[in-house]
Design goal:
The chain is α/β, with parallel strands linked by helices and 428 residues long. The strands form three sheets. Strands 4-5-13-10-11-12 form a six-stranded mixed sheet, with helices on both faces. Helix 6 packs parallel to helix 7 and helix 11 packs parallel to helix 13. It is globular.
Length: 428
């Protein structure tokens, strides 16, 4: 499988090179040259397959022969090592819980898959690869865990100071070993821009790649849980609507990719906080990125979502066609808290702020009797402990995954701008 830059100024490349490079030389993100729908027989008989078999069928065409079949199956087995349960909220809405992995966030899937692919590609190389990743919260912890101790791989995580939760910060700053956290004086978009700038800096001689969802190996495996969810949802015999809490738009883009592969999803809702670049675009046809604003759903605090260009590519940049598949709504912090309260009072379910926004998106979309809605619960409520316990009359138990890091000492290096990142990379 070849990949091309969405800026269309760099040559096509292989899956391996797309993973190792992260970003094309023209600063464009990579996109697969072809998307071949899976067979109707596979979709109709999906209940006969294990989750690992489903994942293999979904991802294999995007890798081709660059990773041997058995090795790819081993990577998938390590990636899908936990469940993705559907929890009914009411008669026509369920939560798809993606937080049962090691860092209790949906990004465990993509981070683990990418880490194992990069390890495979770097297996015979003496030169280390440096993974640069910007995080608004959950990506950093997932990447730190996924790459921890990986041979020949050093990880540098950039996160906005004071704009991630305490639990998130502990997950990305306490592991040590091959993981380094840089605490940036700015917002997530600043971190993301610093990463992109480093890729093109000729003074930096290290081999750099990115573990953000701009990397195809981080992004594509997020298709897995849409297919796995469908295995259970198929029996409902209803049209499916997925509402995805959206920040950098990698997750919902993976869902739309799943649809393009033949998964019968009727509609997607991109549910955002007040960082409403995409809702505004769908309303007025103008893509106008803005400086991100801090919210209680911090993992979605993105003003310039990198993956939205992939979504536009999937619809040939045809806004009218896109709007037939995708709706997008934004919600304030107050609305988010009211959503959390509504879910809890109606069902006893404790949703984190991101999941609550997903729920609100379904409500605003307005499901018909023939439709069934699923919102993605992208992180465990413990990741946002203060917000959850301040909003709901609950005491959140601390899961084992979080107990392992909560009392560890934070270690980070403060940087104020790109020059600080460059200096660190040149010296390390």
């Amino acid at each position: 499988m070849n990949y091309y830059s969405l800026h269309h100024k760099s040559p096509k490349t292989t899956f391996k090179n797309a993973v190792v490079q992260g970003l094309a030389k023209d600063r464009g993100i990579y996109f697969p040259e072809r998307i071949t729908p899976l067979s109707d027989d596979f979709i109709q008989n999906i209940t006969k397959y294990s989750n690992h078999e489903i994942a293999y069928q979904v991802i294999e065409q995007f890798i081709g022969d660059e990773i041997p079949s058995e090795q790819l199956k081993n990577i998938i087995a390590e990636t899908i090592s936990f469940d993705f349960p559907l929890v009914n909220i009411d008669d026509n809405i369920a939560s798809l819980e993606l937080f049962h992995g090691p860092t209790m966030a949906f990004k465990d899937v993509g981070a683990t898959f990418m880490a194992r692919c990069l390890e495979y590609f770097n297996r015979d190389h003496e030169e280390d690869v440096t993974v640069l990743v910007a995080t608004s919260g959950d990506t950093g912890g997932a990447v730190a865990n996924g790459f921890f101790g990986a041979k020949g791989v050093n990880v540098v995580i950039l996160y906005p100071s004071g704009k991630v939760s305490d639990v998130q910060e502990k997950q990305l700053t306490t592991l040590g070993s091959n993981i380094t956290a840089l605490e940036v004086d700015g917002v997530f978009d600043d971190c993301q821009e610093m990463v992109k700038t480093a890729f093109l800096d000729v003074d930096i001689k290290k081999t750099l790649t990115s573990a953000n969802s701009i990397n195809v190996a981080r992004w594509l495996p997020q298709m897995f849980y849409f297919f796995i969810a469908y295995k259970e949802l198929q029996k409902r015999n209803k049209s499916l609507v997925f509402s995805v809490p959206s920040g950098n738009f990698g997750n919902i883009c993976a869902g739309i990719m799943a649809q393009k592969l033949g998964l019968p999803i009727k509609h997607f809702v991109a549910s955002t906080n007040v960082n409403d670049t995409v809702p505004n675009y769908l309303r007025n046809g103008v893509f106008n990125p803005k400086i991100s604003k801090a919210t209680i759903s911090n993992a979605m605090d993105v003003g310039n979502p990198s993956n939205f260009i992939r979504i536009r590519e999937l619809f040939n940049n045809d806004l009218k066609e896109l709007k037939m598949t995708l709706s997008s709504y934004s919600f304030s912090d107050n609305e988010t808290r009211e959503g959390m309260k509504s879910i809890y009072s109606n069902s006893g379910y404790v949703a984190d702020p991101h999941g609550a926004i997903g729920y609100l998106g379904l409500k605003k979309y307005g499901l018909s009797e023939s439709e069934f809605g699923v919102f993605l619960e992208t992180a465990h409520p413990v990741k946002f402990l203060d917000v959850v316990e301040d909003t709901l009359p609950v005491k959140v138990d601390i899961p084992e995954q979080i107990q392992k890091v909560i009392n560890n000492k934070k270690v980070s290096i403060k940087v104020s701008n790109y020059d600080g990142l460059k200096e660190f990379l040149m010296k390390s």
